[in-house]
Amino acid sequence: MQSFEIDKTDLLRIKTALEGNDAELQEVLKEYHASEIAILFEKLPQEAKERIINLLSTQIATDVISEMDEEAHPEELLIGLDPEKRTEIVEEMDYDVATDIISQLDKEDQQEILEDIDQEDATSIRALLNYDEDTAGGLMNSEVICVNINLDKKEALDEIIRQSEEMEEFYTIYVVDDNDILKGIVSIKDIIKARGEAKVRTLVQTDFVYVKAELDQEEVAKLISQYNLTTIPVVDDQMKLLGRITVDDIIDVMEAENTEDILKISGVSEDEELSGNWQDAVKSRLPWLVINLGTAFLAASIIRNFDATVKNLAVISAYMTIIAGMGGNTATQALAVTVRRISLSDLSDRQAYNTVFKELLVGLVNGACNGLIVFAVAYFYDANPMLGLVLFLAMTGNLIVAGLTGASIPLILKRVGIDPAVASSIIITTFTDCIGFFLPLWLASKLLL
Amino acid sequence: MQSFEIDKTDLLRIKTALEGNDAELQEVLKEYHASEIAILFEKLPQEAKERIINLLSTQIATDVISEMDEEAHPEELLIGLDPEKRTEIVEEMDYDVATDIISQLDKEDQQEILEDIDQEDATSIRALLNYDEDTAGGLMNSEVICVNINLDKKEALDEIIRQSEEMEEFYTIYVVDDNDILKGIVSIKDIIKARGEAKVRTLVQTDFVYVKAELDQEEVAKLISQYNLTTIPVVDDQMKLLGRITVDDIIDVMEAENTEDILKISGVSEDEELSGNWQDAVKSRLPWLVINLGTAFLAASIIRNFDATVKNLAVISAYMTIIAGMGGNTATQALAVTVRRISLSDLSDRQAYNTVFKELLVGLVNGACNGLIVFAVAYFYDANPMLGLVLFLAMTGNLIVAGLTGASIPLILKRVGIDPAVASSIIITTFTDCIGFFLPLWLASKLLL
Hints:
three-stranded mixed beta sheet, 3 domains, CBS domain (chains A, B), MgtE N-terminal fold, homodimer, CBS_dom (chains A, B), CBS-domain, 6 strands, Tetracycline Repressor, domain 2, 449 residues, membrane (chains A, B), mainly alpha, transmembrane (chains A, B), 67% helix
């Protein structure tokens, strides 16, 4: 089994089927899983998507729209459907998914959808729309299986079966008191295994991990990953059970956070959509490039101060670009390792000190190795051993600075509360460029001219 | 609730308790969850860890060792324990966790541990040790709940309760025929809800996702994420059920893959341990730096060819570093967005073409904007409008090349089967450096001198 990848054959089959009648199209659709149709949807025009949704059973149509990527804009598809089909689909959807999709629409469209659907569903979705989408509240599903702590085995099982009618899957059963205050969790296994007269009270596990609705989704992901949880309950300040977050929602959060990390470390705004248009990409990247241009002028102004050196030894301007560039590479390596360490766990003072010292040593050794190569080139190719010495010292010095700043800048930023991934690379490049230009030029001006 | 972060207070409490007697230490340990103790272990010496493990119940000690990070080397702790305690712990461990830990030891130590434990457990672990740790087989747990398709409701429930005695949690029940061939899945809910005389045969879902034991773990993660699965069964070529992979194992895979992606894109070997020593870091990074040095010489050789231009217009050597640097930044942005898109889904030819065209446009617009700023500086600061024109053209040209290469190189590498993250950044930097040096020097030599 391979993960499904869109392939021209599949797309061609669907497109050919779209030219035929409904019965033929339905035959072809039967061969695809809902999440596969969701992927194929990224390549189809709006009319085709609407026609396919109308042909699918409500169950499958709901799964398809639920599985669509946020960037494929399921809300546009939903609002384009005829109201009756749309209502069936929204009523079938998990509350958290429906909320995510509906939240992308303007107030008027939201209103229209919510007025048509079952009023109990509408109330739940309206409540979820109030939470920030990056928090536990925005992530949670309010459909949970929950039993009163005073029930006995038989009553609890009946209750679980009744509540699970509307849910596809459940993992954990939540136990609440008469005021809906969360008291603990119990597994279906423990209930089945219990003696006939056992009370839920005696089966409940009261030591469990929960989150408040306001907690940031990244923190929720850390908890789920750290405690190996399948679901986590969400409560309000009075410990009233509001809903649950399941691990599959967290996987989507982790993928989004990963994308953010890689974009931020590369100087792209974390909000840029990967498949967005060029205007948005310019808006997301130009500000960062202009800041970089400013720091590049700063580094270049160092070169201007050594005008005479450059005129008298033009070859130094070729070498200094090499030394500055190698500093940038070394710093990027130290930065990536340090940023990743920070994002996986917090470092104690001692660990932070050790990290910086390690990167300094790595910079020294890598600097000396690369310095020797540059020395050899200057010695044999330029026949200028003194230039070789200058370059060896400059390379070693710059790579020490690179290791030092690559490790210490993100650690410092983290301590003062700035996201290390977003601000580090511009600061360290400025350092390695400035030192990378200054060292060879200054040493050459002292030792060679 | 916050995710647990080591804080000096916790560490100090444990360290103080370690100076007291066993009873006091036990009191303090009671307040920590097993996964919290696992994190504290990263800061404690071997003797302290062994003493703590000996004081904990087998259940908690097992959880602590199971939760330890790979880089904290749980295998060293395990092999240091006295054989009786060690045997209890290994027997209590999930097979997949035990296999991961034991696989880090040398053959002799592996042998010693496996000889002491229950022979059924040892056979299962030995079987798992044969799978590559990056595949479905290496990730799977061989403990599954599985029932024969010919059982009825009552028999199936008894069987599930019997098998679940040894498992903490289970989600999906696998259904096999008399030859252990996987026929489908059934949920505990469906079994409980079924009529008394119902057969498993009538309840089984035969449309399910499974993987072969050899499948790469990244593909397993994609499937679990795409189909929103909690577990996935692992089978051999004859569809015989070998085990299952649960979503919490996949979260660890995703974190590891994520670390790899960030390291590779920054020129660090994917195998470098984040908290490894400096010697290993040098080994992991020096080769990449030396290759970069080679390409830097290539770019610098362009500057050598314009010796006369540099001598006559020393200020150009300051400006060309700016233009080359801005090209590098622009290409890195395009690269990050493209690499991330590729790793999340495969692009069709049309999408690939659109991506390259979009990045070309973004490069053009960002190049013209930054080019205008550089023009203004040359015009007002250097009082040299012609130099300004040269720099404007060079900046725009280099940023077009940067967008073009940043998007197309990873796409090309992907098509020819090379990991885009690892090879792209060195190739695009070479391009943007070469063009970034050549354009201003060549234009200056033609238009200014």
